[in-house]
Amino acid sequence: MTTAVSIPRTGGGGRRTAVAASARQVTKAYGTGETRVVALDSVDVDIARGRFTAIMGPSGSGKSTLMHCLAGLDTVTSGQIWLDETEITGLKDKKLTQLRRDRIGFIFQAFNLLPTLNAIENITLPMDIAGRKPDRAWLECVVATVGLAGRLKHRPNQLSGGQQQRVAVARALAARPEIIFGDEPTGNLDSRAGAEVLGFLRRSVDELGQTIVIVTHDPVAASYADRALYLADGSIVDEMVDPTAEMVLDRMKAFDARGRVS
Ligand SMILES: Nc1ncnc2c1ncn2[C@@H]1O[C@H](COP(=O)(O)OP(=O)(O)O)[C@@H](O)[C@H]1O
Ligand SMILES: [Mg+2]
């Protein structure tokens, strides 16, 4: 059994580090006394920049909690979360809101598109709200990467589930966030549409250098990642580099068997 490998930070000079985000001794507990649940137990993890990471584990193992803590959507009970060289634990609400808006992208299981806006309007909405001008060349690149060029004037109800989620992926990519988080981003899609979305996430890492972290319980989804982390009972208990669906499935079976014995 291994624990999370530490990725060396590159030297100073204002350059971005090789680690996009990290957790140090992060514990998250809900409730108190008899109802206290430890969702994360002293988790240490480094998320590599420009890579695709999958967080795996059984239901209730702490996947969503870890993602929410890394993304500054939830507070920790103890420990630190870093986004590049900014410690986000301890940031005041206003700064944290700004950081989430400016530096992090999200893809949710429900696509969360506005029904009255067409695809391109949905894609640029966060930037419009923030008063930021989209970089045209980048936007074209993103639209091409997620294969939406012919669908930009379509409203969400004129798009398939897979296409809607691709709009949501493009929306997350458009603002060039340092890191994109997705909690079960293919959870509402059939396997074909899911494969499409995962393929585009993969391309955005390979071709656009995006850093992506998804939570999934699907071995096939995890096989698109460069690295799969495996959570059990709030701890990272294993990880795999360049996972295949078969490897992930075997590992899951091994853990389930061990869980039953102990
Ligand atoms: N808001 C909450 N209040 C109380 N317990 C919670 C809350 N959110 C999550 N939990 C508990 O924390 C543990 C981890 O949950 P979660 O991170 O959602 O797991 P996963 O995403 O792996 O299914 C579970 O035992 C869950 O019941
Ligand atoms: Mg979850």
Automatic annotation (TrEMBL):
<keyword id="KW-0813">Transport</keyword>
<protein>
    <submittedName>
        <fullName>Peptide ABC transporter ATP-binding protein</fullName>
    </submittedName>
</protein>
<dbReference type="InterPro" id="IPR003439">
    <property type="entry name" value="ABC_transporter-like_ATP-bd"/>
</dbReference>
<dbReference type="InterPro" id="IPR017871">
    <property type="entry name" value="ABC_transporter-like_CS"/>
</dbReference>
<dbReference type="GO" id="GO:0005524">
    <property type="term" value="F:ATP binding"/>
</dbReference>
<feature type="domain" description="ABC transporter">
    <location>
        <begin position="21"/>
        <end position="258"/>
    </location>
</feature>
<dbReference type="Pfam" id="PF00005">
    <property type="entry name" value="ABC_tran"/>
</dbReference>
<dbReference type="InterPro" id="IPR003593">
    <property type="entry name" value="AAA+_ATPase"/>
</dbReference>
<dbReference type="InterPro" id="IPR017911">
    <property type="entry name" value="MacB-like_ATP-bd"/>
</dbReference>
<keyword id="KW-0067">ATP-binding</keyword>
<keyword id="KW-0547">Nucleotide-binding</keyword>
<dbReference type="InterPro" id="IPR027417">
    <property type="entry name" value="P-loop_NTPase"/>
</dbReference>
<dbReference type="InterPro" id="IPR015854">
    <property type="entry name" value="ABC_transpr_LolD-like"/>
</dbReference>
